[in-house]
Write a sequence for this structure.
């Protein structure tokens, strides 16, 4: 028996040790720090109760970034899933170039968010401006110089990056639909839209759950492209939650407040994703 | 499908593929222009293909060095993540005890934790352990990536009959022999999935290395790009050449291992 235990720890131990030091311990310490005046440098910290949380709620930048993040998440989840689903329908039509298309649509997904943000910064500020001057379209000028264009810039970037990803998930779902079902519906006189609505939609619910979960958490926790595209500017107006926490810690050096924000962030992420999984799993169709 | 319909679909396909490629195209054409040319004509095709921007960007980025740093960190992390999470997953799945179930549950539940919730104390702990360096970074990736990797391996191990383990015990194998000679080879499909997911994530990660690596000599590609871009923000022609250089390794890798990558990334997400 003793030998068995030893073997158990030999197999599980290394991962568990790294995981404990890197995730669990910092998590618990972080929760503790959020109730202290910890500043990241001084060795002795003292308990300050809810001070950091009160300060956080008085910090208007946090509330602003919360609202910005929520709006961004709603827009992105809809856009990414709608475009991704449309692309999935497009590449499952049996066209010869389907495989090539899939390759192209998926490609942006592999490139790091930081690099993508820089590429798009050029597209929005230089490319859009040049196109605007060429065509006389005023709305193409001055992108990323205010909150509105910063918002849409981020949304376009994420839609471009992630649509190909959810496309592949939807493709797998669509290909799992039995051919006979679609044929039967065709014989019964269902048109293309009716077939999508009554057969494809209900049967790809699991793919929908997965995509929703992914887009939701990726947009809500977005960091890299936010940092490189707008860096939260102008005047902190496009700062999402992750970036707000980061700047509170490293630009404003308020570690305790940053940690309190991080705890709230953790709770919100947990609630949102668990609720979403619960509801979408409920509506899945058994075959 | 009739011919007309097919033609329309084909046109839509080509247009949308074009739309997806426009950002790469604009980046590429501008990486060959001089500063003046870029300023005068951003959307036009470059008049001459000047590789000078690439030469300058290559030197300023110290591209070869940061490329190998990224490679060492990615391959190193990947190796230990695969070894230790496959071992842990097999043991957790085969051991029926409360402790084993609990440990697995903690691993899975932690996948929800956003990085920001742990990043500040993490830097402090790692600083104390003298791990704010490349080996430390690799160790941290083991900690962060083990949840998802163990989760994926665990699901796969379930499908491998326990009779195999038992037959091996009768033949006199110990646990390590059973795992490495019999189980691990059978895990190959999921090992590919786990590798792809982790490789893409680690290769592109910016935030963790930016907190951990403070020596310039240990910069990874994303880290160096961040500083490079900050310095050359008004010199777009150089920035575009630098960004192109930065994504070339990923694109090459993608074209060679495309099937595995697409499959790996989606398998990992659907489960």
């Amino acid at each position: 028996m003793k030998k068995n235990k030893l073997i158990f720890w030999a197999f599980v131990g290394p991962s568990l040790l790294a995981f404990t030091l890197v995730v669990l311990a910092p998590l618990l310490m972080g929760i503790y720090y959020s109730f202290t005046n910890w500043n990241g440098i001084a060795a002795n910290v003292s308990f300050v109760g809810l001070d950091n949380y009160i300060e956080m709620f008085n910090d208007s930048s946090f509330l602003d970034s919360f609202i910005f993040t929520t709006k961004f998440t709603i827009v992105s989840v809809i856009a990414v899933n709608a475009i991704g689903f449309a692309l999935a329908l497009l590449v499952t039509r049996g066209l010869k170039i389907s495989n090539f298309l899939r390759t192209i649509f998926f490609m942006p997904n592999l490139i790091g968010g930081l690099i993508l943000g820089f590429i798009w910064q050029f597209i929005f500020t230089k490319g859009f401006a040049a196109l605007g001057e060429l065509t006389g379209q005023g709305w193409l000028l001055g992108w990323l110089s205010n909150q509105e264009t910063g918002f849409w810039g981020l949304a376009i970037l994420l839609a471009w990056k992630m649509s190909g990803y959810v496309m592949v998930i939807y493709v797998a779902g669509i290909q799992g639909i039995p051919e006979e079902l679609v044929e039967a519906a065709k014989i019964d006189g269902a048109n293309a839209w009716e077939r999508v609505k009554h057969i494809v939609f209900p049967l790809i619910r699991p793919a929908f759950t997965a995509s929703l979960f992914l887009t939701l958490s990726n947009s809500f926790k977005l960091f890299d492209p936010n940092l490189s595209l707008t860096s939260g500017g102008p005047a902190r107006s496009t700062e999402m939650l992750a970036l707000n926490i980061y700047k509170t810690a490293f630009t404003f050096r308020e570690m305790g407040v940053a940690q309190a924000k991080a705890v709230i962030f953790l709770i919100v992420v947990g609630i949102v994703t668990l609720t979403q999984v619960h509801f979408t799993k409920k509506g899945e169709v058994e075959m | 499908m009739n011919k007309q319909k097919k033609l329309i679909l084909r046109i839509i396909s080509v247009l949308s593929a074009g739309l997806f490629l426009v950002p790469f195209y604009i980046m590429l054409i501008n990486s060959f222009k001089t500063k003046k040319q870029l300023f005068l004509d951003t959307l036009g095709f470059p008049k001459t293909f000047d590789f000078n921007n690439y030469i300058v960007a290559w030197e300023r980025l110290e591209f070869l060095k940061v490329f190998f740093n990224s490679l060492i960190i990615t391959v190193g992390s990947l190796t230990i993540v695969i070894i230790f999470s496959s071992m842990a997953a097999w043991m957790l799945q085969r051991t029926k005890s409360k402790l084993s179930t609990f440990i697995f549950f903690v691993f899975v539940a932690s996948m929800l934790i956003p990085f920001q919730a742990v990043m500040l104390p993490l830097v402090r702990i790692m600083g104390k352990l003298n791990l704010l360096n490349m080996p430390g970074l690799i160790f941290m990736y083991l900690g962060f990536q083990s949840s998802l990797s163990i989760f994926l391996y665990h699901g796969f191990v379930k499908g491998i009959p326990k009779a195999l383990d038992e037959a091996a015990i009768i033949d006199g194998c110990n646990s390590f022999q059973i795992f490495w000679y019999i189980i691990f080879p059978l895990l190959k499909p999921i090992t590919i999935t786990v590798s792809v997911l982790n490789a893409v994530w680690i290769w592109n990660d910016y935030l963790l290395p930016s907190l951990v690596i403070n020596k310039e000599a240990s910069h990874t590609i994303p880290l160096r790009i961040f500083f490079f871009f900050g310095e050359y923000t008004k010199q777009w022609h150089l920035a575009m050449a630098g960004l192109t250089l930065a994504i070339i390794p990923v694109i090459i890798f993608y074209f060679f291992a495309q099937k595995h990558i697409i499959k790996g990334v989606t398998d990992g997400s659907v489960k």
Remarks:
- The two ends of chain A are 45 Å apart (CA to CA).
- Chain A touches chain B through 87 residues (CB under 8 Å).
- The CA atoms of residues 17 and 216 of chain A lie 30 Å apart.
- The first helix of chain A runs from residue 2 to 33.
